[in-house]
Amino acid sequence: MTSPIFALFDPTYFLVIIGLVLSMVASGYVNSTFRKYDQYRSRSGVTGTDAANYILQHSGINDVAVTQISGNLTDNYNGQTKVLSLSQSTANSTSVAAIGVAAHECGHAVQDATNYAPMRIRTAIVPLANIGSSLSFPLILIGVLLSFNQTLIHLGILLFSLALLFQLVTLPVEFNASHRALKILGEGGVLTQEEVPVVRKVLTAAALTYVAAALSTFLQLLRLVLLFGGDRDN
Ligand SMILES: [Zn+2]
C-alpha cells in the first residue's frame, strides 16, 4: 500500500462493489414494483394530479402549485418555489402507483408547511453535504500523494462523512412523506382499504433506494477509515 495508485484499488474495494450491487438491486426492485402496480387502476379513478390536489386541499395548503414536467419518475416538490412537479406519467395516470408517487410528493409539501424538523435539518445541511462530496476525494488523493499527509486525509474523510449524514437525515424525511400521504388517502376514501397496502408497497420500494444509497455511502466511508484511519507514524 505504499503506491498511491494501488491504495485506491486495494482489497477493501469490495466494500464499494457491495454498495454498487445493493443500489442496483434496490433500483431494479423499485422499477419492477412500479411496472407491476402501474397496471393496477384505482377504484376511485382519480389521477395523480387529482390525488395531489385532494391532499393539498385537505391539508390546508393553498400556496403550492401543481405542475407537470417531462421525464419518467422525475416527480418532486420544491420547497423554495412551492411547486409540486409531477411527471406526465404520474400526473395523468389513474394507477395506484401514480397516485402513490403524487401523494408522496404532497407528503413533502405537508412536511414543509408543518416545519417538520428532519426536513429543515436536511435542507440546512445540503450545502455542507455538497462541499463534502465534491472535496473529500480530491483532498484524500492529494493527502496520499503528499506522502500520506494525515491532516488532509482525515479532513477528506470528515468531509465524506457529511455526505453520509445528509443521506441518513433523508431517510426519516422520505419514510415520513409516504406515511403522511397514505394516511390522508386512506382516511379520505381516495384509496380503498385494499388499495392502501398496495400503494404502501410501491412507496416502500421507492424508499428502499434511499436506504441502499445510505448503506453504500456508509460502506465507502468504512473503506476510507480502514485504508487511512489508522496512524501511519509507527
Ligand atoms: Zn421523497
What does the model show?
The chain has 234 residues and is mostly helical. The chain is built from eight helices and three strands, in the order H-H-H-E-E-E-H-H-H-H-H. A three-stranded mixed β-sheet has the order 1-3-2. The protein is elongated and about 65 Å long. Bound molecules: zinc ion. The site of zinc ion has 4 residues, from helix 5 and helix 7. Residues 104, 108, 174, 177 line the site of zinc ion.
List keywords for this structure.
234 residues; mainly alpha; three-stranded mixed sheet; 8 helices; binds zinc ion
Summarize the structure.
With 234 residues, the protein is mainly alpha-helical. The chain contains 8 helices and 3 strands.
Helical run tally: 8
* Molecules bound to protein: zinc ion
Low-confidence stretches: none
The ordered H/E elements are HHHEEEHHHHH
Roughly what percent helix?
over 70%
Structure summary, number of beta strands:
3
Q: Determine the N-to-C terminus distance.
A: 15 Å
Question: Topology, please?
Answer:
Elements: H1 4-7, H2 13-37, H3 48-58, E1 65-69, E2 76-78, E3 83-87, H4 88-91, H5 96-113, H6 117-145, H7 150-188, H8 195-228
Parallel strand pairs: 1-3
Antiparallel strand pairs: 2-3
